[in-house]
Design a protein that fits this description.
3 domains; alpha+beta; rod-shaped; Heat Shock Protein 90; 12 helices; 493 residues; single chain; five-stranded mixed sheet
Length: 493
């Protein structure tokens, strides 16, 4: 029972223990998001540096437009209020136009300025632009910087002094927008990749995994063989190989089952045949003592032949399992059947073993006579073998007693002996073939056969505890139910 439920429990544990993010689907989704975000980070560095350069160029162009107008008014100094308005409009602290031969201050605030950095927007390198961009993001916000670049197509240079607070704010807004956009892109990309790979990879893998779990629960069921997917990709080829392996495994299991059934069938036949041949061997031993020339001539050959047959039956005992034929039941006189068992046992009078039959002469059992004979013979033979090498305590006789009684539609048969009793190991595997033997060299098939035959009759067989030494087996065999039509027919007559 435990072996049958173990694969199912393991299968359920596999299904419940792995959450979404522990499975391949969840891991694939997370890795896709992480990798897309990493790619966006790598793209973000040059993009934010380019944004910073463009922002500074826009400020230079705006300041240059105002500076060109003022520069056209030679020897005219702008009023302080106009300078202030110009600086506010361009977001700068000072505007200077530089030429090779002269420089002109277009506008300037009254506050003292301490310049923290100088940037040439026209000649910055890619690495320098990225470095300056992260410097502004991390440390900027309240610093005065000097920015300069060419004034249009002329050889003049426009120069600005400005705080980088507005620049940093614009860069932070840009970074936020890039992050949100990158997150959206990564989610959409991850979802599309997830759906595509889940359809092409994860779903077929799950299907094969579920099939392997179901197949392991019942490998003999042909309906559990995987139907391989069509195609020539790796998963399709793997599914085709898996289906082929499952079919081959089923063929192997079927062959092994047939061999096991054949093996136990041969074991059962040889077990009972060995018992019969052993009895014939005892009778042949007695024939050797008969003072008849013909008997004395053929007795040695007969003995050798029987010895070979007994040895052969021991050698061909093998493992396996099979079921007995359906019993052909009829009402059988029980006492003559038990008498035949006693006669076949051929108990040696010198052994001191007494065989007693205690039952009424008219008692009948609804059973298959041959199968019931095998049941009683196997149990009685075990009892005789147990008594052969056992000396009862307190001088009690060596006795095997077969008794029976009918109560209603059930016949109870008891086989009792005064032997040493069942050892603990034999009790644990009482009706198990090849494990329930109580003596050295035994196979344990006798009780296994007896139990199977009794169960086929709808009865029971059990080892009964008793206060005195010995072994007591009790068999209960019920009569078959009488069909209603047969009962009415009998009643009418």
């Amino acid at each position: 029972m435990a072996e049958e439920t173990r694969p199912v429990a393991a299968s359920e544990a596999l299904k419940t223990s792995a959450g979404f993010f522990r499975g391949l689907s969840g891991k694939l989704l997370l890795l896709t998001i992480v990798f897309v975000m990493l790619a966006e980070v790598l793209i973000f560095a040059p993009s934010v540096a380019t944004m910073r350069i463009r922002w500074l160029e826009d400020r230079l162009n705006t300041a240059a437009a105002a500076a060109v107008v003022v520069d056209g008014l030679q020897n005219v100094e702008l009023p302080r209020s106009v300078q202030k308005d110009t600086l506010m409009a361009t977001g700068t602290k000072a505007i200077v136009i530089r030429r090779k031969d002269a420089s002109r201050m277009i506008a300037l605030t009254d506050m003292p300025l301490e310049i923290k950095g100088e940037y040439d927007v026209a000649n910055s390198t890619a690495f320098g632009a990225i470095r300056d961009a992260f410097d502004t993001l991390l440390f900027g916000g309240d610093r005065v910087i000097r920015v300069y670049g060419p004034l249009g197509e002329s050889d003049a240079t426009i120069e600005l002094l400005m705080k980088d607070a507005s620049l940093r704010k614009a860069m932070l807004v840009y970074s936020r927008n890039v992050f949100v956009l990158s997150l959206i892109i990564s989610l959409i990309t991850a979802a599309l990749i997830f759906l595509a790979i889940n359809r092409m990879l994860i779903t077929p893998i799950r299907r094969m995994t579920a099939n392997m779990q179901e197949f392991s629960n019942d490998p003999a069921d042909p309906g559990r063989v995987l139907v391989p997917p069509e195609g020539r990709d790796e998963l399709a080829v793997a599914g085709q190989h898996l289906a082929s392996m499952q079919r081959e495994l089923q063929k192997t299991l079927k062959q092994q089952k047939s061999l096991a059934e054949l093996g136990l069938a041969v074991s059962k036949i040889n077990h009972d045949m060995r018992n019969i041949l052993s009895s014939a061997q005892l009778i042949s031993d007695r024939l050797a003592d008969v003072d008849d020339p013909v008997v004395k001539r053929f007795a040695p050959t007969l003995l050798r032949t029987i010895d070979r047959a007994v040895g052969y039956t021991r050698e061909v005992l093998s493992y396996g399992r099979t079921t007995e034929a359906e019993p052909h039941r009829r009402f059988v006189a029980l006492k003559p059947l038990v008498s035949d068992v006693a006669e076949l046992l051929a108990i040696d009078p010198q052994a001191g073993i007494d065989f007693q039959i205690q039952m009424q002469d008219d008692i009948e059992v609804d059973a298959d006579s041959e199968q019931l004979f095998r049941v009683v013979h196997n149990i009685c033979r075990n009892a005789v073998q147990a008594l052969t090498n056992h000396e009862p305590e307190d001088g009690r006789p060596r006795l095997v007693t077969v008794s029976a009684m009918r109560v209603g539609s059930v016949v109870t048969i008891s086989v009792d002996d005064t032997g040493p009793g069942m050892p603990p190991k034999a009790r644990e595997n009482l009706f198990a073939a090849f494990r329930g033997s109580a003596r050295s060299g035994g196979t344990g098939l006798g009780l296994a056969i007896a139990r199977e035959l009794v169960l086929a009759h709808g009865g029971t067989i059990a080892l009964v505890e008793k206060p005195t030494p010995g072994t007591l087996f009790r068999i209960e065999l019920p009569d078959r139910p009488v069909p209603l039509d047969a009962f009415r027919s009998k009643f009418r007559h």
